Amino acid sequence: MKNSWRLILLLCLAITVGLMAPKAFAADMEQVRQEAKQGGYRLITTNDLRDLIQQNSAGVLLVDTRQDWEYAAGHITGALNFSMEPTWLARLTRRGALEQFLGPDKHKHIVFY
After folding, report:
1. For residue range 30-51, what is the model confidence (pLDDT) as tens digits?
2. 79 near 64, Cβ under 8 Å?
3. 53 touches 110 (CB < 8 A)
4. Confidence of residue 84 (pLDDT cuts 50, 70, 90)
5. Quick one: pLDDT at residue 28?
6. 111, 94 in Cβ contact below 8 A?
7. How many other CB atoms are there within 10 angstroms of residue 84's CB atom?
8. Angle at CA of residue 27, ends 26 and 32, nearest 5°
9. Phi, psi (5° rounding) for residue 4?
10. How far apart are CA 68 and CA 81, in angstroms?
11. Using CA atoms, how far apart are residues 3 and 110, in angstroms rounded to an integer?
């Protein structure tokens, strides 16, 4: 009987989280859109990225911003790793290092993921 209640509570929790997840994702995406707009960035889809790479792979710089161990576990072929937390403080404190990492070529499409 005790295990039945635990199972019911766990099921209720799973349903609640499942119902809330799409709303949370939508809110996160809206925040991402606003931040991109404020920063002068453009968001693209994976299909857009594929097309961009097929058209001119040399003109695209892929930057994997995950932790080193995540990059080592697997990344998009050709991507370079620049670990950075997704916060304004990280962007501010690592600005010089990022500029040096990206180099002087201002004509490349730079894609962060």
Report:
1. 888 888 888 888 888 889 989 9
2. yes
3. no
4. confident
5. 80
6. no
7. 19
8. 95
9. -65, -45
10. 7
11. 53
At 48-70, the pLDDT tens digits run: 989 988 999 899 999 999 999 99
Whether the CA torsion 91, 95, 97, 102 is positive or negative: it is positive
pLDDT at 21 over 80: no
Buried b / exposed e along 49-78 (16+ C-beta atoms within 10 A): beeebeeeeeebbbbbbbeeeebeeeeeee
For residue 17, how many C-alpha atoms fall within 13 Å in the half-sphere facing its CB?
6
- To 5 degrees, how large is the angle CA 51–CA 52–CA 58? 130
111 touches 61 (CB < 8 A): yes
d(CA 59, CA 14): 45
Predicted TM-score (pTM) of this structure: 0.64
